[in-house]
Design goal:
Layout (H helix, E strand, L loop, with lengths): L42 E5 L3 H15 L7 E5 L10 H6 L7 E4 L6 E4 L1 H12 L7 H31 L5 H22 L12 H14 L7 H4 L6 H11 L2 H8 L7
Parallel strand pairs: 1-2
Antiparallel strand pairs: 1-3, 3-4
């Protein structure tokens, strides 16, 4: 049992511990001056190869696969473990200091886009690709895109944090978030038993968003031994969908594309 007692008013601890504890602060905004590089392509992406980050590179590679030259992009590495996300230029792109962030320089006015789902939707609408034009089908894609924005934090910030990153293993939060992770996995498995892709018979931005978390989890590429711990092999329809998407050339490129240094 923990000997922790709730204080009347929370105060920032001197040390959080764990892999990310030293970076956490209870305030937003930039912490230092920064000048991010800008390349020559229409789209500038500032990111990292995390599940949220690869959503954007996978989608851009899918667009390039279709021949969209305006989807060419420069990709710069934002090292979140070193705090690059708190630099002034990056905070200007995303006030929330989270990767990925996109700067579209293709028009008369630069457009910043932040939050991975927003970037996917922005690019899908910009290029009229991987999102249906039919209103009902489009809505179903958005249902699952926004499902992913609500569900994945329970997987990453919940299960992944306490299973892998937390400085000590605590039974209650691991059980709590493992339960929720498996509920989500069961939901996806049941849905994929009925259709080829998560929103129907066509591959869409919803598949990209969800695969980047749950597909990589099924491949045990997120946290060591998490797939065995959660018994991912029991979700056969999720596994089949995972492998089908993993075989796409654009997905493979999006996972391995090189990030340029920012300094």
């Amino acid at each position: 049992m923990s000997d922790y007692t709730l204080p009347e008013v929370w105060e920032n601890p001197s040390s959080m511990g764990g892999a990310w504890g030293s970076l956490n602060q209870p305030t937003a905004g930039s912490r230092f001056e920064q000048q991010l590089p800008v390349g020559s392509n229409p789209l500038q992406v500032y990111s990292l190869g995390t599940p949220n980050g690869v959503k954007v590179t996978i989608f851009l590679e899918e667009l390039k696969e279709l021949g969209f030259s305006q989807a060419n992009y420069d990709l710069f590495k934002i090292s979140i473990s070193e705090g690059d996300q708190f630099g002034s230029d990056f905070v200007h792109l995303n006030p929330n200091s989270k990767i990925p962030a996109l700067l579209d320089k293709s028009g008369d006015q630069d457009v910043r886009v932040f939050e991975s789902a927003s970037i996917l939707l922005y690019l899908a609408d910009k290029f009229h690709a991987f999102i249906p034009t039919d209103f009902a089908k489009r809505t179903e894609v958005l249902n699952w895109l926004f499902w992913s924005t609500g569900a994945a934090p329970f997987l990453g910030g919940g299960f992944g944090h306490f299973f892998h990153y937390a400085p000590e293993k605590i039974e209650y939060p691991i059980n709590r978030f493992a339960m929720e992770a498996k509920r989500q996995l069961d939901l996806l498995d049941k849905e994929l038993a009925k259709k080829a892709y998560i929103a129907g018979e066509e591959y869409s931005i919803a598949d990209i968003a969800i695969w980047s978390w749950y597909g990589q989890l099924a491949q045990d590429k997120l946290w060591k031994n998490a797939a065995a711990f959660l018994n991912l092999k029991e979700y056969k329809y999720l596994q089949a969908w995972t492998q089908k998407i993993a075989q796409r050339p654009a997905v493979q490129r999006g996972l391995t594309v090189e990030h340029k240094a920012i300094k």
